[in-house]
Amino acid sequence: MIFDCHIHTKHFSTDAKMTIDECLNALKCNNISGIITEHIDYDYPDPAQFVFDPNEYFSEFIKYRSDSLKLGVEVGMQDLALAKNKVLIQNNPFDMVIAATHMVLGADIYYPEFYYDKSKETSYSEYFDAMLNGINKLGDFDTLAHLDYISRYSHYDDPYIHYSDYHRYIDEILNYIISNDKALEINTRLFDDEKAVNTIDEIMSVYSKMGGKYITFGSDAHIASNIGMNFKKASNIAQRYNLRPVYFENRNMQYA
Ligand SMILES: [Zn+2]
Ligand SMILES: [Zn+2]
């Protein structure tokens, strides 16, 4: 069974639009399973954004938990939030924890301010540095989200991540994933764009050569029509490099 391991609903992710019913319906229509991974970004500049009460989450969504629907979380990594993130992860029965880099040096990289007066090399190096620092300090997570997140929002002529330009960061990140038995997400959000597919293809080829085995597929859907989007392309990459799609149940890796 294919799992979409990265889905947000409006009930607990402050930037999402789909209801749990729309989500369940879309999973059924696509004949796939799913993991809800609501956003928690502690210490976000606007304290009302990207937080939810995990007790409420489990009490409201526990009735939907099944073989084909799991309850996870997407945790935004920042030094300031580290202790709170660890407590959240340890104290709640998530099926899967996604580690994500949304904030770099205290700035949300969704907004253009982060890139002001910075070369692509500077902002992308800061981004990968934050990711590397984040995963090393957090440790307690299952899959690493969207390596190419910055390509969604930076405004450079060429926003793509070319492995050869950032290999010293990417190699270290991949090495961490491999030596700590984590999975790496293939996030399909940008996969309408073949250039974005090619950059991830290249990184996955390196991941496989270095000994990487496990990947999760994630649409990062915030609306129901995006669930399972471009999974055929993700699946082609997985097959090409002999990578094993997995999902998580009670924090244990399962073959999808
Ligand atoms: Zn994210
Ligand atoms: Zn997400």
The portion of residues assigned to helices is 25-40%
What is the CA–CA distance across the termini?
A: 5 Å
Discrete helix count: 8
Following the backbone from N to C, one meets helices and strands in this order, namely: EHEHEHEEEHEHHEHEHEE
Bound molecule types: zinc ion
Which structural class matches the secondary elements? alpha/beta
Task: Using the CA coordinates, give the radius of gyration.
Answer: 17 Å
Topology:
Elements: E1 3-7, H1 20-30, E2 33-40, H2 54-61, E3 69-76, H3 82-91, E4 97-100, E5 103-104, E6 107-108, H4 120-138, E7 143-144, H5 149-153, H6 163-179, E8 183-187, H7 194-209, E9 214-218, H8 231-240, E10 244-249, E11 252-255
The protein binds zinc ion (2 copies).
Features:
binds zinc ion, two-stranded antiparallel ribbon, 9-stranded mixed beta sheet, alpha/beta, 256 residues, 8 helices
